[in-house]
Amino acid sequence: MTAAPPPVGGSRPRGIQSGGSALREPVRIGLIGAGRIGSAHAGTLARRVPGAELVGVADAVPAAASRLAGQLGVTAFGSPDELITADEVEAVVIAASSEAHCALIVAAAAAGKAIFCEKPMSQTLAEADRALAAAADVPLQVGFNRRFDAGFAAAHEVVASGGVGTPQLLRSLTRDPGLANPGAVPPWTIFTQTLIHDFDTLLWLNPGASVVEVYATADALVAPEYKPAGLLDTAVTVLTFDNGARAIAEASFSATYGYDVRAEVFGSAGMVTVGDQASSSLTHYGPDGRRVTTVRGDVELFRDAYAGEFAEFADAVRAGREPAVTGRDARRALGVALACIESVTTNRPVPL
Amino acid sequence: MTAAPPPVGGSRPRGIQSGGSALREPVRIGLIGAGRIGSAHAGTLARRVPGAELVGVADAVPAAASRLAGQLGVTAFGSPDELITADEVEAVVIAASSEAHCALIVAAAAAGKAIFCEKPMSQTLAEADRALAAAADVPLQVGFNRRFDAGFAAAHEVVASGGVGTPQLLRSLTRDPGLANPGAVPPWTIFTQTLIHDFDTLLWLNPGASVVEVYATADALVAPEYKPAGLLDTAVTVLTFDNGARAIAEASFSATYGYDVRAEVFGSAGMVTVGDQASSSLTHYGPDGRRVTTVRGDVELFRDAYAGEFAEFADAVRAGREPAVTGRDARRALGVALACIESVTTNRPVPL
Amino acid sequence: MTAAPPPVGGSRPRGIQSGGSALREPVRIGLIGAGRIGSAHAGTLARRVPGAELVGVADAVPAAASRLAGQLGVTAFGSPDELITADEVEAVVIAASSEAHCALIVAAAAAGKAIFCEKPMSQTLAEADRALAAAADVPLQVGFNRRFDAGFAAAHEVVASGGVGTPQLLRSLTRDPGLANPGAVPPWTIFTQTLIHDFDTLLWLNPGASVVEVYATADALVAPEYKPAGLLDTAVTVLTFDNGARAIAEASFSATYGYDVRAEVFGSAGMVTVGDQASSSLTHYGPDGRRVTTVRGDVELFRDAYAGEFAEFADAVRAGREPAVTGRDARRALGVALACIESVTTNRPVPL
Amino acid sequence: MTAAPPPVGGSRPRGIQSGGSALREPVRIGLIGAGRIGSAHAGTLARRVPGAELVGVADAVPAAASRLAGQLGVTAFGSPDELITADEVEAVVIAASSEAHCALIVAAAAAGKAIFCEKPMSQTLAEADRALAAAADVPLQVGFNRRFDAGFAAAHEVVASGGVGTPQLLRSLTRDPGLANPGAVPPWTIFTQTLIHDFDTLLWLNPGASVVEVYATADALVAPEYKPAGLLDTAVTVLTFDNGARAIAEASFSATYGYDVRAEVFGSAGMVTVGDQASSSLTHYGPDGRRVTTVRGDVELFRDAYAGEFAEFADAVRAGREPAVTGRDARRALGVALACIESVTTNRPVPL
User: Fold this and answer.
1) Where in chain A is the domain with CATH 3.40.50.720?
2) Which pLDDT score, from 0 to 100, does residue A23 have?
3) Quick one: pLDDT band at residue C4, thresholds 50, 70, 90?
């Protein structure tokens, strides 16, 4: 299995269609997880990924699987295990709760299935190592969807081809539009679930470099009443790389203006910026000036990127090659996240 | 059959998914025309429109149909007639050469098939009337794809809901990136094939108003050596509406910077502008300033709009309702185009 | 006297400082006209033009001159004639009512004074010829201020240096934020006072080309009740040039979103666009999206351009050369405006 | 003496004219320092600040003063002391080398002159205290020019009026276009000369809040060969405020694309961004996409802001009030810079 570059370009058409995939048999996919993101993935897999065929869904709660399967006209499996071992399932997309990811990867790999796992792939580095070892012989892709956004992919291409020279200052940020249920947010979520995207982005946009030290600071500014319970809703981190570059990652759970994901790479020969919240090309002018409507959620912002990551997965499965985003990438981003948590705990920079 | 509003919004997700369509049987579509746009449509229908299933293609040149059908793994019909009368074909998408449109509509309607016809629906108003009469009892949609672009759709929503007050000055333009084969361009193409899009846009963005007079001027500035053969590659037209609004439509066949389609509606209470050539959200900064890459073709710019128009068609067919863009819309835009041609010929404003 | 290129560049600093002007004696300027634009010019001349010194003001209404002179601490002359013949006045800036322009030019030229005259320089071509003949031996500059806006000047530079190839399609527009007193607007004002700016812009941005035909249409859409009295508040014109280029100029008196002046030149090798209504670099994001505040008036939008045109005037006077914008330019733009009026009257294209 | 809000708004006209200043006697200003920024300030004071009159210049090197004075037609004083004690000098603008600032403030205050001092006001907090004590009875303004940029001023207005709610995440950055002479850059310059602007900006955009802790990391990435000599050309800092907000300030000495200064304030109710590198409103479209030219230096970017800070100074002097940017502001920003230096030295967060 060899890694291929992600089959996306800087072009507006964000869905990715691999050349001859229509002639190939679509990859028969079973989806585990019928929650918010699982349901969105199911819709994407059922309708928008030429090389994939959604054959069924499962969930720890069978009724949730039944409801989603009914909406899409596919099979509802009685349990994740049943789905994993079903003959008609060729590949498994894991969108269950994060705690279950590692065990599901191990089970799916044992069943010889190709695996797509939502981020975070694991909760600990030990779990990551267990997942990587288990999946050594099957394709394993992780859900760092930003890599399949046309703008982010174009930024990567420019950086990787030397268009900004040597990266020196990088920035990646995530601002989620809302914190619906602060009481339900596990401690450190902002690092392990949110900023983990930014860490992957920053590593990907500083190709070949490794993080040698992190500093992180975080607080509960949106919902301070939940701070005693461990909620951190605002965070800033600084990563120092072995090539000298410094990168900032920041996140907040309370953007009133929508879902905001941006990145910037400044280097010795130029800069790229990427990320735009505009919901369309419309500008509306009136007595209060000119106005552009902004996107409201990840599914809206990354609709094509979600389709793109699954197209890459289907293509890698059919081609028998390693997907463009691997379990090793997931382990690496997790390592940064865990070091950041330690930095917040100790209020010190933490070497990696 | 009743007209429904187009099921698109101002949101970034440009593909249109009708609520429960996944549970419905997809509409079985036969495509006529294996040229540039026909091939693009075939790819869209095969891969990106949940409510549609491409069952086969036909072309006046059977070998062209075979090649395209082979690429997509669908049936190659021996002739358009064969496709039209095939039992497994429920609806026909006509992307043949313009001269053939009217006869194909009449034939498909006679066979009771739902019809999607590329623009222009017809070459003359008499043809348009013949097509409309023939298709009185089947769904007939015309390929004014811009209406399904997220930005244009949002502009329409703002205008239709009074967001700019009464339209007073409108503009729509098309700048095609190249004129590959000037000798092959039939006379008046810039009006009947290109600006017809802009005329539909302007009529749609000035809801309820009718054109009462047009003025047009045109020239061969890109390829002047072909002017004697009737080529006009640059045109400007002014439409006067019965509500007093004036609209400008302009077109050129030689945009060196890509494919450029924009519109603007200025009214008593504000303005909307729409259309953006950026190929992604990437901005690249260097010694020569900051730069944004531009899209290069209609298929790239309107990828989601093409999928959207077919989703609307499939939905209208399944719902037994009139599509959002009708044959009457096609006739209306053609009337403006023909009056513009007369204006160029006579160098006078022409009343409608 | 030889014409010099306007001493402005594409740079943000919009005020123009000629190299050694600080060492020269400033040009002693008398201003005629204490109305809205005259008062704005007085403030600019008093404070923002290094090479100029405002020595006094005059007005047909002496009390108006006294009030303005008092505010600025300069001399109030008893009449325009008194100012023109005053020894301490070296150059005259004419910002009186348009009907008075020609006679004031003749008088100032007779007194040997350098002359800056607001647009329109004259009401008729005969008047224009009289003014040109009278001012044959003194510097005469006309108030086409847009040429001194950094963006417009940069556009001209790009076009003049071949950056867009041969111009093929041009556009210039003016949208004024309000029509305070429709009853006071003389007939044809939209052509002779407003669009005359756009005509100059279009001629300047299509260097070396001449207008050979115009088509114009106009209406009273903002204040239709004043149409019987001759008010036209909305106009669209199409100019055909001898190099084949077509240009659109449009104007409205009712932009709710501020003062909007833009231009576009599309040519065989590219395009430039210019004009931005943003009042600063601030973008404000909130629940209704992102918003930019817009400028509200010409004095705000063209503050630096006004200073720039006077700096050019002062420099030309001191250098004994012809200013960058001449009386011939004024005559040429007026010719286009008058042909447009004829086109509206006859509803025909009018050759020049 | 009471502090007044800075007399700037969010409007495009960036020069600031205090209402009745034309009737007042302009403030007679002597400038100390004939280097790069001193010469720029001299030009601004001589030509662009209505309320100010440049009467003379001085420099530690008399020949430098003579040359500059000659260019502007003003007096060349034999030494800074001579200028400070001259009767015709009412106010002193200090643009000498940073080491000299404190002593010059003390001397000017002793002579009873109003004082405008470039940043940094002092090298140490002890010096800052000495300067503040000395200038207790004269107006003392410090050169934090960004506050007088139209965009930054508008951002402050929005934030101060609650337009983004409570600030939670802030960012300010400075990217200088070049490092002409790395060997001549004193150690820690990036903090005391460059980022000190950003620290003032961040304090000003988080009104009422104080910095309680800083973390900083810095390196020599542009000119690593000068690192042994103490050069740091790239820095990232994180400030934690007592209201919980986190702010990032970053700087680099090597922007290939021009001079880049931006800020962002994200809060509980929205966000503002400010800063634009475009040199004019021109966009140029060609085969490589669309392009905007960028500004190349601070004097170009902040031309109006420089005029604005001097207009504020002149107005404060005439009004007998405290200027909008005080010596206390300078001390506060210096405190942050010194803590950052300690953080780099110790590789620890440093409490204030």
Assistant:
1) 27-146+303-321
2) 54
3) very low
A131-176 pLDDT, tens digit per residue, is 999 999 999 999 999 999 999 999 999 999 999 999 999 999 999 9
CATH architecture of C150-298+333-351: 2-Layer Sandwich (3.30)
C-beta atoms of B274 and A285 within 8 A: no
Query: Is D233 within 8 Å of D179 (Cβ atoms)?
Result: yes
Interface check for C252 against chain B (CB to CB < 8 A): the answer is yes
Q: Give CATH 3.30.360.10 domain extents, chain D.
A: 152-301+333-351
CATH architecture for the domain at A27-146+303-321? 3-Layer(aba) Sandwich (3.40)
- The C-alpha of D281 sits at a distance from chain B's nearest C-alpha, in angstroms, of 13
The answer to whether C255 contacts chain B (CB < 8 Å) is: yes
Residues of chain C with CATH 3.40.50.720: 21-146+303-321
CA distance B254 to chain D (A): 11
CATH 3.30.360.10 placement within chain A? 150-299+333-351
What residues are paired with C294 via a beta bridge? C278
pLDDT in tens, A45-74: 988 898 999 999 999 999 999 999 999 999
Cross-chain residue pair B280–A12, CB shorter than 8 Å: yes
Fold classification of B21-146+303-321 is Rossmann fold (3.40.50)
pLDDT at B64 over 60: yes
* Closest chain C CA to residue D73: C23
pLDDT tens per residue across span C154-187: 999 999 999 999 999 999 999 998 788 888 899 9
- D149 contacts in C (CB within 8 Å)? 281
CATH code: domain D152-301+333-351 is: 3.30.360.10
CATH 3.30.360.10 fits domain B163-297+333-351: yes
ipTM strictly over 0.95?
no
Give the C-alpha distances (Å, rounded to integers) separating D324 from C328, D140, D310, D317.
49, 10, 11, 11
CB contact under 8 A, A291 and C294: no
The secondary structure of residue A205, as a DSSP letter, is: T
Give tens-digit pLDDT for C239-288: 999 999 999 999 999 899 999 999 999 999 999 999 999 999 999 999 99
Chains that touch D (3 or more CB pairs under 8 A): A, B, C
DSSP type of residue B25: P
A276 touches chain D (CB under 8 A): no
Residue C213 — φ and ψ, nearest 5°? -160, 150
CB contact under 8 A, B17 and A50: no
Report the residue from A165, A222, A236 with minimal CB separation from D248. Answer: A236
Query: What residue spans in chain C does CATH classification 3.30.360.10 cover?
Result: 150-298+333-351
Distance from CA of A111 to the nearest CA of D (A): 47
Parts of chain B belonging to CATH 3.30.360.10? 163-297+333-351
pTM above 0.80, yes or no: yes
A150-299+333-351 in CATH: which number? 3.30.360.10
Residues C184-201, buried b or exposed e (16+ Cβ, 10 A)?
ebeebbbbbbbbbbbbbb
B256 contacts D286? CB cut-off 8 A? yes
Does the beta carbon of C289 lie under 8 angstroms from any beta carbon of chain A?
yes
- Give the C-alpha separation, D180 to B85, whole Å: 77
Angstrom distance (rounded) from CA A106 to CA D307: 67
How confident is the model at residue B50, as a pLDDT?
80
**Is the CB of D289 less than 8 angstroms away from the CB of B293?**
yes
